[in-house]
Amino acid sequence: MRTVLIIGGSKGIGNAILSSQLELNNKVYNISRSAPPNNHPNLTHYDCDILTDELPDFESIDTLIYCPGSVNLKPISTLTIDDFRTDFEINVIGAVKTIKKYLKPLKNGKNTSILLFSTVATKLGMPYHASIAASKSAIEGLTKSLGAELAPAIRVNAIAPTVTDTDLVSKILRNDKMKEVIAEKHPLKRYLAPSDVAALADFLISENSSAMSGQIFNLDCGIVTFKL
């Protein structure tokens, strides 16, 4: 049984990963502002705002997964400095705060790893993505830098998903027509379900990926790699 700490496991991608890890019979700690819907003896939830509250202490953890993110899609003319600051706080500062807090417990774990999240918008020039692309680009730099700094004790990787069917992107996937349009933009003619992301996360925090660190994995339904 492995010990997995998930930040933001109550909804969306975070909850899909949490659910999958519980199915694998791992011990899961979740830190978020709301409790996940799961009821499992291996799950412990801590009600906490990652940016403002004191984080709980753990003696040992094997994996840290930081899931919080934002989808703040506006033209640069209407994005404010506070928009950029808020997105950076959620995506980057929260991750850094969490990593610094749990470095020692991670060093006490086995086959330890950190998993972060980027976006395909760091690779593609996408209108209205200036703030989120800037924040997630910082996450990619953090992944590579910490992967080098913490080797060989702790592996650090990131997943960069394309559009994923979660509450966070409900405004984009707001009706059947928009869902069809978004799917058609991808060479594989689909977008992601949270379970798609959870499957890759399961692999990246397992012993099967013990040779991988400092990598950004595009889970993109082909949109970054292919031009058809």
Task: Please describe the biggest sheet, giving its number of strands, its sense, and whether it closes into a barrel.
Answer: 7 strands, parallel
Question: What's the oligomerization state?
Answer: single chain
Order of SSEs, N→C? EHEEEHEHEHHE
Radius of gyration: 17 Å
Domain count: the total is 1
**Name of the top-level CATH class:** Alpha Beta
- Uncertain runs are none
- Roughly what fraction of the amino acids lie in strands? 15-25%
Query: Count of DSSP helices?
Result: 5
Structural class: alpha/beta
Number of strands: 7
For the terminal residues, how far apart are their CA atoms? 44 Å
What is CATH's topology name? Rossmann fold
> What's the CATH H-level homologous superfamily?
NAD(P)-binding Rossmann-like Domain
CATH architectural grouping: 3-Layer(aba) Sandwich
Could you explain how this protein is built, in words?
This protein is an alpha/beta fold and 228 residues long. It has one domain (3-219): 3-Layer(aba) Sandwich (Rossmann fold). The protein has 5 helices and 7 strands, in the order βαβββαβαβααβ. The chain has helices at 12-23, 81-107, 130-150, 176-185, 194-204, and strands at residues 3-7, 27-32, 43-47, 63-66, 113-117, 155-161, 216-219. The protein has a 7-stranded parallel sheet, with helices on both faces. Helix 1 packs across helix 5 and helix 2 (81-107) packs parallel to helix 3. The chain starts with a strand and ends in a 9-residue tail after the last strand.
